[in-house]
Amino acid sequence: MDTIKVAVRNENNEPTGILSIARDITEQQKLIDELEKFKRFAEYASEGFSIMTLKAETLYMNRSLQKMLLINQSVEHKNFLSYFPEDLHAQWHEQILPFLLLKGYWQGELAALRTDDSRFPTKETFFIIRDDKGQPMYIGKVMSDISEQKQVEASLQLAKEAAEDATRAKSRFLAHMSHEIRPPLNAVLGYSQLLMTDTQLSAQQHERMSSILNAGQRLLHLINDILDLSKIEAGALHFRQDYFDLRQELNEIIALMRTKAIAKGINLNHDIQLPAPAIIKSDRQKIGQIILNLLGNAIKFTHSGEVKLTVHLDSNSIFFTITDTGLGIAEQELQQLFAAFKQGKSGEESGGTGLGLVISKHIAESLGGKLTLDSKLGKGTRAHLHLPISIEYNAQLDNSPQIAHAKLTAESHCKVLVVEDDFASRDLLMNLLRDIGCEVIIATDGTEGLKQAISLAPDIIFTDIRMPNLSGTDMLKELRKTINKDDLPVVAVSASSLEHERTFYLGEGFHEFIGKPYQFHDIYAALKKFTKVKFVAEDNITENENTLENQRVCWRDKQKLLALEDQLGLLKSSFSNGDMNGSKKLFALQSAQTLGANAYQQIHNAIRQYDLVLAETFLDELLAEIGGALKSDSP
Fold first, then answer.
1. Intervals of the chain under pLDDT 50
2. At what angle do helices 356-366 and 203-233 cross, to 10 degrees?
C-alpha cells in the first residue's frame, strides 16, 4: 500500500488527530518489477539493444551495444546514424526506413562504425514500437557483432575455393591422362579386334587374341571408373536417354557373369518378372554398369551357394535385388562401403579399386533412384536397387542385327577422310575402313585435313580433336565456311572423354562422337547412318560366293559328318555348362562351310551376345538336321 498520513489540527493549530490515506499500488509495483526485469535483461544481454525516435535520435542503448561501439559516455538524443558509415546513410533513408514503416520490421547485415572509426560487420533487426492505438512511437533495434562468423565464412570460402581448384586441377590432370592413355589402349583393343577377324588364325591364336582384348577392356573399365568418379565430384556426369530392352540387357549381363560364377563353383540364378520385351528409356550403359558391379561383387565374395538376381515392377518403378550366400559384411564396415576408395576387409583381400559401389550409388541417385545394402556377417548380403522407370509399351526398337565383321556391298562406294595425328590410331582406323571396302584418304593434322576435305570431296570425315596446327573442332568451323553440314558429315573420334561429352561435340556441329577406344560396330553404324552405304556380313559373302553344292562339303562324307557330330556334341556340352571361353574355342574350329552359313551365323551371333542358351537351341536344331542326314544315308 502507498500511505499518506496528515496531522489534523484545531483552530489553535494543535494536533487533534491523524488523517491517513492509503492507495493499493499492487499493479504499479508489478509494472515496476517487470520494467526492472526488462532493464536487467537488456543490460546483461550479449546482443546490443537500443531505442530511438522516429527521427533516429537515440533514447536508450544497453551496455553490450555501448561496448561494441566503444562508447563510454551518454548517448541520449544522439543521432544513431553516426554509428554507421556515411555511405549507409542514404540506404537508411531510401530503403530501410520506408520498408520499416511499411512492414514494421527490417533485417539484414550492415557495417557499423565504432567511435575509433573502425568498421565491423553486424546483423541488424529494426522494428516499430507502437502505442495502444497502433501508431508508431519509437524504433527498436537489436544488433549482433558477426565479425567471427564472417571470418569463419571467409575461411570456409577460401577452403571451398581451394578444394574446387584442387578438383578442377585433378579433373584436368585426369582428362590429360585419359587423352594420353586412350590412344595406345585404342591400338591394343583395335588391333585385337582387327586380328580376330583374320580367318587364318588358329583356335589357340584366336583364344590368345581374345585374352588380350578382354584384358584391355578390363583396363578400360578401371580407367572409366576413375573418370566417372571425377565427373561425379565435378557434377559433370552425363546421361543418355535411349530406348532399349531392359530384359535383353539383363539376360546378356547374366550370360556374361555366369561364366565367372561357374568358375567359382556357385550358381547364378535369376527371376526377372518383366514383360518381353521390356522397353525403357534411360541410359543403358549406366544401368548395366550398376548391375554388373553388384553381380560382380556378389560373385567375388561368395565361395559357395548361390547369387540370385530378382527383378520386378511396382507401379512406375523397377526394383532389383541381388542376393548372395557369401561371407557377409560387418556392420562397421557396411557404413564405409559407399565412400570412395574404401573397402571392407574382404575387399582388400580380393583386390579392386573400391570405386564400384560409390559410383553405382551416385548413378542410381542421379537417375532418381536409390541403392542400399543390408548384410550380416556370415549370412550373406542383399543389394537393393530402385529406379523410377516405366515400361514403354508403345515404343519400337531397331531390331536390325549388329554387324560384327562386314564388307560394303558391290554397288556401295564410300570415300573416307581420316584426320588423325596419332600413328597407331590412324593406321588402325585406316586398315579397318579399307578392310570394309572404303577408299581411304589420310591427313595427319587439321590443316592438312581441311585441304583434303575441300579438294578431294570425301563422303565422310572421321577426325581426332586434339591435333597440332589445327584442332578437329577448328577444322570443322573452317570447313563449314565452304561446305554445308548436310553435304559432308564429320564424326569426332576422340580420347577426350572427360572434358567434353557427346552432347558438347554434337553442339559444336559434329554429326556423331565416338570415344576411344572405339568399338568397330560404332564405325559401321556411323558409315551406315551418314553415308547410306549397305553392308553384308562376311559370312553372308561366303554364302553368296558359294553355291549350295559347295556348302557343307564334309556332309557328303559319312565319316566326316560323324566326326562333326562328335565335335558339336562337345560344343553342346560346353554351352550347357555355361563355359563361355571353352565355347568360343570349340566354335572357332567351325566355319560356314562346315555348319552352313545360316546356322553358323545364328550360333555366332548368340555367342557374341553371351546367350549360350539361345546358342544351344540353334545347335540342337543343327544336330537334329545332321541326325536326319545320317539316317538318310543308312542302309
1. 341, 347-353, 400-401, 498-500, 538-550, 635
2. 60
With left for phi above 0 and alpha for psi between -120 and 50, is residue 487 left, alpha or beta? Answer: alpha
Contact assessment for residue 604 and residue 597, using Cβ atoms and an 8 Å cutoff: no
Q: Specify the pairing of strand 15-23 against strand 48-53.
A: unpaired
Give residue 133's Cα distance to chain centre.
62
Q: Which three cell numbers stand for residue 298?
A: 556378389
Burial 391-426 (b: 16+ CB within 10 A, else e): beeeeeeeeeeebbbbbbeeebebebbbbbbbeebb
State if pTM tops 0.70.
Answer: no
**Which residues pair with residue 124 across a beta bridge?**
108, 143
pLDDT tens across 205-221, in order?
Answer: 776 777 677 667 667 76
Taking residue 560's Cβ as centre, other Cβ atoms within 10 Å add up to: 13
Q: How many CB atoms lie within 10 A of CB 596?
A: 18
Q: In angstroms, rounded to a whole number, what is the distance separating the alpha carbons of residues 473 and 88? A: 51
Residue 573: count of CB within 10 angstroms of its CB: 14
How far, rounded to the nearest angstrom, does the alpha carbon of residue 189 sit from its chain's CA centroid? 25
